[in-house]
Design brief:
It is built from 2 helices and 4 strands; from the N terminus they run E-E-H-H-E-E. By secondary structure, the protein is of the alpha+beta class. It has one domain. A 4-stranded antiparallel β-sheet has the order 2-1-3-4, with helices on one face. Strand 3 and strand 4 form a beta hairpin. The relative contact order is 0.21.
Length: 84
């Protein structure tokens, strides 16, 4: 597995530019975009990515290349069993 690196991520749909970008670590640009979405939803407490159609983010790799990703999410339901 490759080493995690820092990626700069911003969301133009939120009015963000690279100047507003967040540093997110990931194994690759896609992994960093997913981590950004999870963190954004959790920090906002609105879970707007999971509840909506997602959003597009721009990810700048350590080498300066940029890629756009459409990030979406889904809620996970967990079940537990305990001895009665």
């Amino acid at each position: 597995m490759s080493k995690q690196q820092a990626y700069l991520i911003w969301c133009p749909e939120l009015g963000s530019t690279s100047d507003d970008g967040s540093s997110v670590t990931g194994y690759d640009a896609e992994d960093a975009a997913e981590t950004w979405a999870q963190r954004e939803d959790a920090e906002s407490a609105d879970y707007w990515i999971v509840q909506g159609e997602g959003t597009t983010v721009i990810v700048r790799s350590p080498d300066g290349t940029e890629q756009s990703f459409r990030v979406t999410g889904e809620q996970a339901i967990n079940y537990y069993a305990r001895a009665a």
